[in-house]
Structures are given as C-alpha cells and as structure tokens.
Design a protein that fits this description.
The chain is α/β, with parallel strands linked by helices and 695 residues long. The protein contains 15 helices and 35 strands. Strand 28 and strand 29 form a beta hairpin. It binds FE2/S2 (inorganic) cluster (FES). The site of FE2/S2 (inorganic) cluster has 13 residues, from loops.
C-alpha cells in the first residue's frame, strides 16, 4: 500500500513519534496513525473508493469529511459508520460498503435499564469553534456554569484547519496569528476555567419542546436542561450539482483542509478548484504548501470574491484563474480523471467553443457556506431562550465569529442580570470584520521618495486588517483612514527588520534595500516565503514577479532568514536589477506553463446530474416530478422520490432541491419547507441503552 502522508510542510509540524495501529481493509492488513479517522487512514493508504451504492453501484468516497453527508460509509466490525468521524482502532475489520448493509446476525437480548442522565447547566454552548470558545471565555469570567459540546475530538472547530495568518484587528482578534494557533490558545484558556465543562466527541442531536437538549456524549445519550442555549455550530459548505459531481475525487474544500491540514495527508497530485472566494483561494494556497500541483481555479463571476491579497498570492505562484468560467463536467469511471470547464455568459450559460479539458484527480467545491442552524430553528420554535453567534448566525470570517461570540456572551450576561455592557466599539468592529472587501485602488503602491531603505505595501484593496501598522517599531506604516478597512502606506524610516513582512496576512509587503550595491546595478529585496523550506536555496536563480504573478525578470537568492519570531515564515532576500525594485512583489520557482490547453467538444448533459447523493435521485427526476404534479411541497417530492430521506437527513441536497423548484418555475417563497427529523443526526440504538458492552 502507498503512503500518502505529508512529511515536510512549511507550517505544520510533522510528528515523527506518531504511534501506529494495524487494521484490515477488505481483508488486507494496513496501518493508521493512532486516533486517526477511518477515512483519513484509507486516504493515507491510497484508497479513495469506499464502496458502491446499493441503487446503481456507483462508486462512493469522501465528500464532506465532517460527518454531515453520508458518502463515506464503510462497514467497521460489521456496522455501517461514517468513516470520517470514527477513529480506527487496532485490529478493526473495515470493509467497503457494497450495496446495503446486512443486519447483524447477533440476536441476543440486550440489557436495558437505567435512566438517561439529566444534567442541568446555566448555559449550553453548542459548538467549540471560534464563536463558542470566545463566548465561553467571556461567560467563564463571570463564573457562569457552561457546558460546551463539540462533535470533534478536540475544541477549535475550523480554526484548527487554518494554517494561514488571520486578517482583522491585531488587538481585538489576534490578527497576524495563524488560525490553528488562535484555536489552540482559545482552547487552552477555556480548559483552564473550572466553570466550563467541556464535552468533546459529543454532538448535540436534538432540542425538544420541554427545553431538554439531547447530546450523544461520547457515544451515550444524555439530556441537558440549560437555562440558555447558545448555538455556535458554524457553517457547512454549499454544494454544486454538475455532471460527475458525485464521483469520488470531487469533494468539499473543507474536506480537503481536514485531510491536508489536520491529518497531514496528501490526497491528490493534481487539483482543480471551483470557487474564487476566500475558502477556494486558501485551499489552493494550502495545496501548494503541501506540495500539490494546482491545475486551475474557476470562478463564475467576472472577478474572484476573495481578498485580493489572498488571490495575488496564488497568482504569483502561477495558478491559472479562470473567471467567468464554470465546470461543465467531471469525468472518470471509478474516480475523477478529467475536468472540463467552459466560459459562461452574463446569464451564466456556457459559451460553446470555449470548453477546455484538464487532467485532474481531485476537484474541490468551494462555493460558499450556509449556517448550520437546524438546532437553532428547533429551539426558537419551542420558545426556548436561544442565542446564536458566529457562522451559525451570520457567515463571515473567523475573526468576526470570535468577536460575535464575545458580544453574544455579553448579551447573555445582561439577560442573566449581570451588570455588564456591550461597548459600542465592539458592535462597530464586528460589523467591520464582517465586511465584504471594499474598493480596490487602481493606483500603484506609493513609493517613498529619496529613500534607500523602505517597505512597499502591495495591499490595494479595502479589507479589515491592520497587523502591519501595529508591528512597525517606528510606526512608519499607517492606515490614514479612520478604520482598519483602509489601505496601509509606508511613510518615514525603515529599520529593515522585516517584522511587517513576517506578520502581514496577505504576504503583501516587500522591503527594498538600495544600499546593496553601490554601483547601483543591483539592489536587495526582501519578500515573505511560506513554501516548504527545501523549495529554495541560497544562490538559486528565481523568476521575479509583479503583483499579478507576471514574470518581470530574474533574481538570485542571497539570504534566507528563519528566526523563531518569524512564526514559520521565511524572509527571503533576493538580488535583483536596481530598476526593478519597486515592481517586484514575489518570486516564482517555476515559470508559468505555456502548454496549450486541449479543447473539448463535450456538450452539457444535465439530465443525469445527481442531486440527492444518499438516495441517488437525479435533477431530471425531480424537475419532471415538480412539473408533472405542480407540487409546491418539498415533502411531497420527498415522499415520492425519497430525496432528503438518506443517511444525511437532507443536509446535502435540501438547498439544491429548493433551487430546482425555482428551475421548475415555482417561486421559492411558496415552497413548503422540508420537515427535518427530530434528531439532527443518526444515533446508534446502543447509545440509549445505558449499558456498557460494545454491541
Ligand atoms: S443527499 Fe443525503 S438525503 Fe439527499
């Protein structure tokens, strides 16, 4: 079996002392890291197809890697489980799920009895991500008793997948630090507070009319009676339906970050990405850091919606960006092999003759997020005292989620009668942190006159960010506008220390030193570099690029600084022609490919697009049914075609089906919504039994 583990990474530490366990997959002995999820262990061993669907024998693999969908089902010791949320154990017998699972032969009467534990608390926080942890810290300061439930093995939520430096305000929400480090800091602060009871591996599965909340606490069903519920469940990824979207190898950007950044697995060699928002762009950057070739990124709009500085980073690394394009088709037999993209017109319709075909083994879907809010809706419906913060309330960057957690905690404290207030500047800041990127300056960066040592800020778009201004010892970088949304400029003196370069989340600052060569033939430029250490070396000749990644010329690496305070970012000094100093923003080690992209003459065939993955129901079946019956009731479609009735409970297909109502000519406002199951996720019967055996 192959080993697809990442063994060098510029930011993540490789634990050389990891312990391994052995397990069997379809009768073959393979190994996994201790505590690793089954799906990750299979990927590490090069296994991407986990079984075949009972309905049409279609291959099944990973899709969300977050316990939300059901595409990664396998049999573990004879029991069907979502492989992305069940850890491998020594000697486990794992088999691919071929068709429907059989009932276990064991028909012994199980021991029942005992009562479901009932636990009271002042506040139940559902979700231990950025918002939940920030709220918990604030509540803990006032000695409020809280239980924090999270379905993962550890706290931190999506922060633990974010290896890049965060934007935002350096004083208020740790801007300039890496997301994973922020997650660790918040978690350890929460763990120190005795008022905060932490339940990991404990998904909240239902909220009921009597004010009780069901929790699957480490595999056992317990009930919690909170006075107040705070929903900080975050967001789940939106999905996109196109021909071949259900092939193994096509999955969410979050799943990719889980495999690469949490589990240090290299799941692909050739990656293509759909979506030019921050999530898609960051996924591309994370892929490069893991040594994965990114073939391209498509964005349906004329411009990518992610931060320009993020986008500039990947353009400079040579990733082709196809705006006004979409994916026409994903092609493969048992796994993705090729991706066909096409240009689209203003009405998002494919333009014939513009199709291009790429070899790729993985296609990421990064087309936005929607709040995980089922529990919130349930709680509000029953009139329970409920608050929500972070993405479960409003989708925004994690820095906004942290701050909204703090503010919501204050609201709860006021509700509980504490004498606290919410400073008005907090509300202002959270609105700023939630802002979409503002205007982009059309002018070039400002170059200081008559200076021989200076920095240039290549940060031209208004985004909420200020670490550069706070880190300069001489306070020479300033945001002139009265808000962190302004763009920074350099004015004054520069000590050439490189601190601003090592902290800027956008990797958008260069340091020019014209003293380097008195003959004025060459100068020195310092740039940030976050690719694997051995990707560059002293005396190496490299291409120099402008802000958009266009090659300007060549330079020679003359220094690589890797001090502790640089927080795993290398500061690379490059000798460059004297006259190029103000244009150069970065370096590239490989020249852009000039290979001609093959054209394709594939036609869009959207008849058989799978919409409901669990039940394998196509777009055509759903649209035909809505048109034929004239129904406006989601539940009627569900009863007739089984859409939304699969193991994921409709979490993956509900939004897509709502869109199909629109395509079939029904106004979304008139559609009777899908009735959710009382439990938001599946619970093994044994969880209710209060007995200790493992059946
Ligand atoms: S995709 Fe799971 S029920 Fe439709």
């Amino acid at each position: 079996m192959m080993d697809n583990r990442i063994n060098k990474h510029p930011v993540l530490s490789i634990d050389k002392k990891s312990k391994y366990v052995n397990f069997n997959f379809n009768g073959k002995k393979i190994s996994a890291k201790k505590g690793e999820m089954i799906s990750s262990a299979l990927f590490a061993n090069g296994i991407h197809v986990f079984g075949h669907h009972y309905k049409d024998n279609s291959p099944q693999g990973i899709y969300c890697a977050n316990g939300q969908c059901s595409q990664c089902l396998v049999l573990a010791n004879g029991i069907p489980v979502k492989s992305c949320i069940v850890p491998v154990k020594e000697g486990m017998d794992i088999r691919s799920l071929e068709g429907l699972p059989e009932l276990l032969k064991d028909d012994e009467v199980v021991k029942t009895g005992g009562k479901t534990p009932l636990i009271k608390t002042e506040v139940l926080i559902v979700g231990g991500g950025p918002a939940g942890l920030s709220a918990a810290i604030e509540l803990g300061l006032k000695n409020v008793k809280c239980i924090i439930c999270d379905d993962k093995q550890d706290l931190g939520g999506k922060l633990s997948l974010q290896t890049h430096n965060f934007f935002g305000s350096i004083r208020d929400c740790f801007a300039g630090s890496r997301g994973m480090d922020i997650g660790c800091n918040l978690s350890s602060e929460v763990k120190k507070d005795k008022n905060l009871d932490i339940w990991v591996n404990s998904p909240v599965v239902g909220v009921f009319v009597d004010g009780l909340v069901g929790v699957l606490k480490d595999g056992r069903y317990v009930l919690v009676k909170p006075e107040i519920i705070l929903i900080t469940t975050g967001a789940r990824e939106k999905t996109l339906a196109f021909p071949g979207c259900d092939l193994p190898g096509v999955y969410g950007a979050g799943a990719f970050q889980t495999l690469v950044n949490r589990d240090l697995i290299k799941p692909t060699e050739k990656l293509f990405i759909i979506g030019g928002g921050n999530v898609g762009i960051i996924a591309a950057y994370h892929a490069l850091q893991a040594g994965i070739d990114v073939i391209g990124l498509v964005e349906a709009l004329h411009e990518c919606g992610g931060y320009k500085v993020h986008l500039d980073k990947i353009k400079r690394m040579g990733i082709p960006i196809y705006t006004s394009h979409t994916v026409l088709k994903a092609i493969g037999t048992d796994h993705l092999q090729r991706v066909i993209i096409t240009e689209i017109d203003d009405k998002f319709k494919p333009i014939r003759g513009t199709e291009k075909i790429f070899d790729a083994d993985t296609l990421l879907i990064a087309v936005g997020l929607s709040p995980v809010d089922e529990l919130r809706k349930q709680a509000e419906k029953f009139g329970l005292k409920t608050y929500a913060a972070g993405d479960a309330d409003i989708i925004a960057e994690a820095s906004a989620a942290m701050f909204s957690g703090k503010i919501t905690a204050r609201k709860i404290l006021i509700d509980m009668g504490f004498d606290v207030e919410i400073p008005p500047e907090w509300n202002e800041l959270v609105e700023i942190l939630r802002s979409r990127p503002g205007k982009t300056k059309k002018t070039k960066p400002i170059i200081p006159k008559n200076k021989v040592v200076y920095t240039i800020t290549h940060c031209l778009q208004e985004i909420p960010c200020n670490p550069c201004t706070e880190t300069c010892i001489l306070q020479s970088i300033k945001i002139k506008e009265d808000s962190i949304m302004g763009t920074p400029v350099f004015e004054g003196e520069c000590l050439a220390c490189g601190r601003c370069i090592s902290l800027c989340p956008g990797l958008a600052i260069t340091l020019v030193d014209k003293r380097y060569d008195s003959s004025k033939k060459t100068a020195r430029i310092m740039i940030p570099w976050e690719m694997p250490k051995n990707s560059i070396k002293i005396n190496q000749n490299v291409y120099t690029t402008d802000i958009d990644g266009e090659v300007i010329g060549e330079g020679r690496i003359i220094g690589i600084k890797t001090s502790e305070w640089q927080n795993k970012r290398q500061l690379v000094s490059v000798e460059i022609p004297y006259n190029d100093t103000n244009k150069i923003v970065s370096i590239r080690i490989k020249k852009k490919s000039t290979e001609k992209i093959p054209k394709s003459d594939e036609l869009l065939d959207d008849e058989n697009i799978i919409i409901c993955r669990c039940e394998r129901v196509t777009k055509k079946e759903i649209i035909d049914y809505i048109k034929k019956t004239g129904t406006k009731d989601f539940n009627a479609v569900k009863a007739a075609l089984r859409v939304g009735m699969g193991a994921c409970g409709g979490k993956t297909c509900t939004d897509l089906i709502m869109r199909l109502f629109r395509e079939a000519g029904v106004d979304i406002k008139d559609v009777e919504e899908n009735v959710n199951r009382p439990f938001s996720q599946e619970i093994p019967i044994k969880a209710f039994l209060n007995e200790d055996d493992d059946k």
